[in-house]
Hints:
Layout: E1 14-17, E2 23-27, E3 32-37, E4 43-48, E5 52-57, E6 64-68
Antiparallel strand pairs: 1-2, 2-3, 3-4, 5-6
Amino acid sequence: VRHEFTGTRWKAQTVRFTPDGRLFLTGGFDGHLRAWDADTGRLWTALYRHPVLSLAVGPDGRVAAASDTRG
Length: 71
């Protein structure tokens, strides 16, 4: 374990790493899709839309897809 994320008000519903392992994505019922730096544990970017149920990352790591409660 490189980093432990504690004290946050949200829980990750789904987690996916990019193929190169440099970033990981988290999504949850708070409606945020977050990208994290796997080495430092720092938040890289966050998008807000709808509760995230599942994530997928393309084979080259350049594209990610998320499904939400709307399908």
